[in-house]
C-alpha cells in the first residue's frame, strides 16, 4: 500500500526535537534581522531623522492614503501634507513629503518617474528593505541619488517569520500583535515598524515631527477598492474581493496605543473612517455623509 503522509505519526520525542529546531531557527532569524536591519538602521537613521524631530510643532499634518473615502476630502489650506504611494498624483494638494518603497517596475517606475519630474520640491522617503516581504522590490539606487531623497529601514521581522502571502491570506490575531508588535519612539536609532502599508510608516514619522494634530485620510482598511485618479481603476476591476485590508486594523490599534503613550498631546483624527471607526477620533465630511445617505436611499428603492 502506498505511503500516505497524512498517516505519519510524529513521536513525542521527535515533536520536541522539531520544536527545539524551530526555536533555534527563530533565534537565528532574529540575529540575522539585527545584523541586516537593526544595526544598519541605527547608522542610517542617525543621518536622516534628527533634523525632523519636532520640526512641525504647533502645525497640522494630513496623511493621505489610497482608500476611496479620500475622494470626499477637500484639502485644508493650513496643513503639512504627506502622500502615501499613489496619492502623490493628486494636483489639488501641495505635498511636503512622499513615502514609498513598493518597487516592482512597470506601474511603480511610472510613479517614481512622475515624482522625479513633477514633485522635485517634495521630500521623498524610500525604504531600503522592501525585499523581505514583497520579493525583489528594492527601489533602484538612481532614484535615491536624486535631490530631496531620504532612505530608511523598515522593521519587517514578522514578514521574515511568516511570509507576505500567509499574512494577507490568514490575517493576524490581536494576540500575535501583543507579543510581536513594537514601535520604537526613537526613529533616529531603530527601524520603522511596517505591517503591510506605508501609512504605518508615515504615521510614525508624523508623530516624530510632533504636530498638534494628525489627520488620517483614505485609511479605509476595507475591501471597497481605491480612491479615484491614482491609477488603480483597472486593478480594482480585477482584484479579488477576498483581499480585505481589514487585517491592517490590529496594527492601527497598536499604533493608536503607541501614540497615546508617547504623544498624548497630539490629536489624531480619522477622516471618513470605515474600518478604523472608533480607533482614533472620528470626523466626517458632509460630502461623504451625503454619499452614504444616497447609497442607502438607492438600496431601499431597490428592495421596494
Summarize this structure briefly.
The chain is of the alpha/beta class and 304 residues long.
Describe the fold and architecture:
This protein is of the alpha/beta class. The protein has one domain (12-303): Alpha-Beta Complex (sialyltransferase cstii, chain A), CATH 3.90.1480. It is 42% helix and 13% strand. It is built from eleven helices and ten strands. The strands form two sheets. The protein has an eight-stranded parallel β-sheet. The protein has a two-stranded parallel sheet with strand order 6-7. The longest helix has 37 residues, at 12-48. Residues 131-135 and 159-170 have low confidence and may be disordered.
Task: Give the CA-CA distance, first to last residue.
Answer: 62 Å
Unreliable stretches (pLDDT < 50, length at least 5) are: 131-135, 159-170
Q: Write the H/E string, N to C.
A: HEEEHEHHEEHHHEHEHHEEH
Query: What is the CATH topology descriptor?
Result: sialyltransferase cstii, chain A
Strand order of the largest sheet: 5-4-3-2-1-8-9-10
| Structural class label | alpha/beta
In DSSP terms (H or I, runs of 4 or more residues), the helix count works out at 11
Radius of gyration (CA) equals: 21 Å
Mind telling me which CATH architecture this is?
Alpha-Beta Complex
Helix content: 40-55%
Based on Cα principal axes, name the global outline.
Answer: globular
Mean pLDDT: 79
What key phrases describe this protein's structure?
single chain, 304 residues, alpha/beta, sialyltransferase cstii, chain A, globular
Layout: helices, strands, pairs:
Blueprint: H1 12-48, E1 60-64, E2 79-84, E3 97-100, H2 107-118, E4 123-127, H3 131-134, H4 141-144, E5 149-152, E6 154-155, H5 157-162, H6 164-170, H7 174-180, E7 192-193, H8 198-209, E8 213-217, H9 233-238, H10 249-262, E9 267-271, E10 281-283, H11 286-303
Parallel strand pairs: 1-2, 1-8, 2-3, 3-4, 4-5, 6-7, 8-9, 9-10
